[in-house]
């Protein structure tokens, strides 16, 4: 009889697998880009599963950047399973991952630094759904007005500089409109500050819904709102302002305790009428015309003469 030498026969009981606890949230982590440079620093760009996210200068891109060094469609990113891949689209100034120019498709890792062209910097990170929501809230809090949800004054004043540069680069006009709610103090005194807050939210929504995606609405202070109308000559800006004025006038506002109506006044100015347009001269000219609209009886637009 021959004795068998070696390990005992394997059996189901002897083939135990160590069980490792898996964090369910870790399995749900998704890739996002966070903008690291420029006016939109802190902005998040999601990469949905199976979708192609295009990055570039064209407004048709999934994520468009106001950076003249970018090609119109500079690069694209796709998520395949749990892998994220970026590919340059033959851009002039290149796509760089951790300072190395991308040649072909490059798989991204958590924490990678991406540079598009000369000025646009992104960071790729893997985050949970809760982390993504939190990051978006932080960014929104930095650029949005807490009451109305439109952009705040700080963002506006920086954005005007960007829009002026865009207009100068492309030879296109920039028009500015400043809206003011007529007799707003009377609304607060008669109906209370909560009613006044409701009026501001409704007006902000009317302005936001009535403009193109490339235009900007910001709360300038109190009951004043500023519109930046890219590539819009003065006559067209006046038409936009008057259309919005009429919508404001015809919209009943339910404040909870009462339904009220308000009117608005506005001033309009355009870079094409100013010898050397800058932020101060553009806003100052527009504000002066708003003041005249209120002096002349309110519920009207004062335009460039």
Order of helices and strands: EEEEEEEEEEEHHEHHEEHEEEHE
Largest sheet: 6 strands, antiparallel
The number of E-state strands comes to: 18
Instruction: Name the beta content range.
Output: 25-35%
Shape type:
globular
Structural class: alpha+beta
Major β-sheet strand ordering:
2-1-11-10-7-8
Share of residues in helices: 25-40%
Distance between the termini: 116 Å
Number of helices: 6
Radius of gyration: 27 Å
Taking pLDDT < 50 over at least 5 consecutive residues as the criterion, the unreliable ranges are 1-8, 10-14
Topology:
Blueprint lengths: L29 E6 L8 E3 L5 E5 L6 E2 L10 E6 L2 E6 L6 E3 L2 E2 L3 E3 L5 E4 L3 E8 L1 H15 L9 H18 L3 E8 L2 H8 L1 H17 L6 E6 L2 E7 L3 H17 L2 E2 L4 E2 L3 E7 L8 H17 L5 E2 L3
Parallel strand pairs: 3-4, 17-18
Antiparallel strand pairs: 1-2, 1-11, 3-5, 5-6, 6-9, 7-8, 7-10, 10-11, 12-14, 12-17, 13-14, 15-16
Helix pairs in contact: 3-4
Give a short synopsis of this structure.
This protein is an alpha+beta fold and 305 residues long. It has six helices and 18 strands. The protein has helices at 129-143, 153-170, 184-191, 193-209, 234-250, 279-295; strands at residues 30-35, 44-46, 52-56, 63-64, 75-80, 83-88, 95-97, 100-101, 105-107, 113-116, 120-127, 174-181, 216-221, 224-230, 253-254, 259-260, 264-270, 301-302.
């Amino acid at each position: 009889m021959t004795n068998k030498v070696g390990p005992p026969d394997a059996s189901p009981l002897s083939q135990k697998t160590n069980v490792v606890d898996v964090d369910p949230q870790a399995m749900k982590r998704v890739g996002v880009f966070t903008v690291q440079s420029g006016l939109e620093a802190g902005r998040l760009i999601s990469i949905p599963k199976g979708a192609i996210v295009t990055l570039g200068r064209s407004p048709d891109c999934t994520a468009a950047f106001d950076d003249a060094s970018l090609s119109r469609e500079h690069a694209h990113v796709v998520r395949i399973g749990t892998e994220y891949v970026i590919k340059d689209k033959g851009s002039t100034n290149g796509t760089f991952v951790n300072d190395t120019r991308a040649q072909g498709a490059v798989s991204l890792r958590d924490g990678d630094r991406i540079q598009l062209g000369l000025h646009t910097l992104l960071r790729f990170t893997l985050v949970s759904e809760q982390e993504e929501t939190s990051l978006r809230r932080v960014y929104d809090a930095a650029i949005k007005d807490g009451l109305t949800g439109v952009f705040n004054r700080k963002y506006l004043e920086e954005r005007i500089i960007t829009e002026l540069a865009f207009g100068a680069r492309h030879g296109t006009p920039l028009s500015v409109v400043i809206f003011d709610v007529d007799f707003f103090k009377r609304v607060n005194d008669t109906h209370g500050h909560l009613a006044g807050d409701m009026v501001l939210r409704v007006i902000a929504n009317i302005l936001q819904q009535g403009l193109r995606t490339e235009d900007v609405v910001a709360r300038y202070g109190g009951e004043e709102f500023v519109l930046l109308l890219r590539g819009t000559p003065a006559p067209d800006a006046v038409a936009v302002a008057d259309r919005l004025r009429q919508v404001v006038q015809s919209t009943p506002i339910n404040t909870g305790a009462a339904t009220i109506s308000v009117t608005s006044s506005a001033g309009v100015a355009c870079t094409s009428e100013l010898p050397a347009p800058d932020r101060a001269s553009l806003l100052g000219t527009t504000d002066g015309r708003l003041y005249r609209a209120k002096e002349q009886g309110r519920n009207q637009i004062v335009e460039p003469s």
